[in-house]
Amino acid sequence: MPDRRREGPGGLTSVPADPAHGPEQPFVGSPRTTRYRLRLGAWGIWVELTASASVGAGVPVTGERVADGVWLDVSPVLAHPPSDRRGKRLTAGEAAWLRRGLALAGPALAARGPCAHTLVTVDRVLFPEADFQPEGLAAALLRWAEEEFGLAPHPVRAHFDRGANRYVFRWPAGQGRLTRP
């Protein structure tokens, strides 16, 4: 039998619809890891994030809608075993920053094709607890989406506020200055 898979956006693969084999299956990508690093002051932010994506015609059965046609599933990192040192269990507040990061990429993802729904599943997140700001999660998932789907970079600017001993992020146009999602 011939290989019926085809490559889709960002290296995702699908099996096309065939009356003999049923409806088209969604494009499914392998989990991929990206690292976000920022160091401008006395300390830095470092986040390692592993996620995967699937693209299909139907609304995903898991995840939360973050933009038109864009969905995010953070359940794996909300349920991560606390004793496992290969990743961190996130709080709901930290997961909200992941939603913010994917929402920044949402318009570019939605513009890629009509009637397609993209589901991004965050499988693992790792960061040092001593030097951490949750805004780094948004920047990491935004970078992951840019790399995964070949999107143009979104300019996320940050500066170190020595008095507050923290980074202040300036998000792309239209997103304003955010301190909390």
Layout of secondary structure:
Blueprint: E1 6-7, E2 13-14, E3 27-28, E4 32-39, E5 44-56, E6 64-67, E7 70-73, H1 75-78, H2 92-110, E8 117-126, H3 135-149, E9 157-161, E10 166-170
Parallel strand pairs: 7-8
Antiparallel strand pairs: 1-2, 3-5, 4-5, 5-8, 6-7, 9-10
Helix pairs in contact: 2-3
Could you explain how this protein is built, in words?
With 181 residues, the chain is α+β, with helices and mostly antiparallel strands. It has a single domain, classed as Ribosomal Protein S5, domain 2, CATH 3.30.230. It contains three helices and ten strands. Strands 3, 4, 5, 6, 7 and 8 form a six-stranded mixed beta sheet that branches. It has a two-stranded antiparallel sheet with strand order 1-2. It has a two-stranded antiparallel sheet with strand order 9-10. A hairpin with a 2-residue loop joins strand 6 and strand 7. Helix 2 packs parallel to helix 3. The longest helix has 19 residues. It starts with 5 loop residues before the first strand and ends in an 11-residue tail after the last strand. The N terminus and C terminus are likely disordered.
